[in-house]
Design a protein that fits this description.
Largest sheet: none
Number of strands: 0
Number of domains: 3
Strand content: under 5%
Number of helices: 5
Shape: flat
Order of helices and strands: HHHHH
C-alpha cells in the first residue's frame, strides 16, 4: 500500500471532518493541493456523487421501506393489539367498527399485493436487462469472428 493510500485510509477512518480539515489547510498552504485532493475524492468515489449513487439511492430507499414497515407494525401492535383487528378500540358503533376492520384488512392485503407486484416488476426488469446483455453479447460474437492468426494484421 502506498503512503498516499494509507493517509487516505486514515482520513477515511476519521470521517469527513478530517477531509474538510485537509482541504482548509491546503487552501492556507498551497491552493493547488486542494484541487488535487478534490480530484482524488471525486475519482476515488469518496464524494459519492457519480455512477454508484443509484445503488446508494436504492439502498436508502430499501432501508426507508424497512423502517416504515417496522413503524407500521409498532403502531398496529400499539393501537390494535397486533394482527387481531377485533381488539381495536371501539368507536361505539358496531357497524362502523366492522366496516373499519374489513377496510383495514383489505388495505393491508392490497398493500401486500402491491409489494409483491413491485418485487415481480424489479425481477422482470432485471431479467430483461440480462436478456438484452446476452443478446448483445451473442451479436458481438457473430459479427466479430475470432482471429485465427492467418489474416494479416493492420
Amino acid at each position: 500500500m502506498t503512503a498516499a493510500a494509507s493517509v487516505a485510509n486514515k482520513l477515511d477512518d476519521m470521517g469527513r471532518p478530517a477531509w474538510i480539515a485537509v482541504m482548509i489547510v491546503g487552501f492556507i498552504v498551497f491552493w493547488p493541493l486542494v484541487l488535487a485532493v478534490l480530484a482524488y475524492l471525486f475519482w476515488s468515489g469518496r464524494m459519492g456523487c457519480h455512477a454508484r449513487g443509484s445503488d446508494r439511492f436504492e439502498r436508502k430507499m430499501q432501508r426507508m421501506q424497512e423502517k416504515m414497515a417496522r413503524m407500521r407494525e409498532r403502531m398496529r401492535a400499539h393501537m390494535y393489539g397486533g394482527d387481531r383487528w377485533e381488539t381495536s378500540p371501539s368507536s361505539g358503533n358496531a357497524a362502523f367498527d366492522e366496516y373499519k376492520a374489513e377496510t383495514l384488512k383489505r388495505l393491508e392485503e392490497e398493500q401486500d399485493a402491491f409489494h409483491d407486484f413491485l418485487e415481480r416488476l424489479h425481477m422482470s426488469k432485471d431479467w430483461a436487462e440480462f436478456d438484452q446483455f446476452m443478446n448483445e453479447l451473442r451479436q458481438k460474437d457473430t459479427t466479430h469472428p475470432q482471429d485465427t492468426g492467418d489474416q494479416p494484421q493492420a
